[in-house]
Amino acid sequence: MPVLDQYLADCKFILVSNREPYEHVRGVEGIEVRQPPGGLVSALDPLMQRIHGTWVAWGSGSADAETADELGRVQVPPGDGSYTLRRVWLNDEDVEGYYHGFANRALWPLCHLLIHHFEFRTEFWERYRAVNLRFAHAAADEAERCTGRAMVWIQDYHFALVAEALRAMRPSLFIHQFWHIPFPPPDIFRLLPVGTHVALLRGLMGNDLMEFQTERHAMNFLECVEQFVDGATVDRDRRRLTYQGHTTYVDAFPISIDVARFTEMANSARALELVETLRSRYARDDRQLGVAVDRVDYTKGIPERLRAIEYLWTTAPELRERVTFLFVCTPSRSNVPAYAALEQEVGALVTAINEQFGTPDWTPIVLVNSNVDADLLAAVYRAADLCLVSSLQDGMNLVAKEFIAAQVEEKGVLVLSRFAGAAEEMDDATLVNPFNLDGFAAAIRSALAMLPDERRRRMRRLRAQLTRSTIFDWLESILAGATAIIDAQAGPRPAPRKSEETDGHPPEAGP
Ligand code: GDG
Fold first, then answer.
1. Ligand 1 neighbours (beta carbon < 6 A)
2. Which among 26, 188, 349, 488 is placed 20 to 30 Å from 176, CA to CA?
């Protein structure tokens, strides 16, 4: 990664995210270290090791405190220690208010346009502000420890207020933020109480660069600023805005996956064994295998998908027993009531469909209600004749990309919601509107009927395109964008304030 390495040679890189890359937990045999699954950690951890950065995150593990120093710092990876993890401590009320409350019950549904799930409570908002401020202090403190330049990269909607607070503490920092989920248009964003929506926008405007998954989300953000922030100047053509003398650049950087790793996993001996098992169990006698993989989240359109399948088998009885669906539905955020209710709804729908259509030797829908390991996941994708992604709204959707990377035999069809960010890059998928019941069912039907040559032609193009845009390309383009802005920033950056030149803690600053 030449751009990155060149820039970071004399710059400290500070990453801020909710989840930490290494969690220490107390197990039966003492303290164990766990690395949470997920593409972001596996892409950013090697980078952090190479550039010896600092990662600021919530210390969520049961043995995190005893393995860190009094400031919450610990060297990771264990046994190598090439970078610093700075843990921020949250108590139960913080987690309830900041994470489950404002982030997941207010911002998450609002950004996904699912306003019937939107819940605002002032106590959640207050916690969110307080926790964001704490993260800003931790990042400022880490920046203070370096002699040269520093760059802070904030991840996601958990931290909409960090950039502004951090800029007040350390005006000379380069700060940018990647927003992983959609950004809503003004008519939705204004459902937040007056004051809160402006505070969030001003918080994000503390960034030098705001990164979104798609052009549409970037434009929504600019429109919200234009409508709600008095005194802000928005230049849509040049995708930037200016407020109180500070310019924020805004752009789209679609995230991706480690394509080579997924392809390699799909080609492993273990995956091949599992593919055999899956196909002999679920795709005997020329039956097709349809798969779906999601966290159980109301944004993923799982009930809508089940209803489309039910409609298909009701209106086209000849397709019964011709396809089995395997749904990997990983429980998620179960302590938020809407998620617990959704888990029940999905279970009940699957039971009803299986009772209605099942036969002694055919279970129409196989529901796996737990986290599956990476080998099995790769095998599920490889074994599939079709993959259904039916998000009602989605920033990107990595499942669609993982499926393509694992389709080494190029025989599977991707049925993809047009409301997932991924759809904007994937003309060769079968695009669907998950709200359109019979349209969705018809799309599944035509995917099942697609001939092998057509499947291969489409999958080959999807694979070629994915290979050109991996998570490493994503990282490189963001860092290239950031360094271009640094180079272009006209005039000297604001002089450091008094507090920055001392060893003292940064001043209190709030949004
Ligand atoms: C947010 C945005 C955006 C799921 N079950 C298992 C498992 N998974 C993995 C998948 C995939 C990931 O979880 C889900 O990623 P998505 O992209 O679908 O969705 P979110 O979690 O909602 O992520 C989204 C993303 O951020 C990145 O910016 O694309 O739009 O909402 O990687 O494979 N993995 C394993 N076992 C499971 O049972 N190993």
1. 37, 39, 180-181, 255, 293, 295, 328, 330, 371-372, 374, 377, 394-399, 402
2. 188
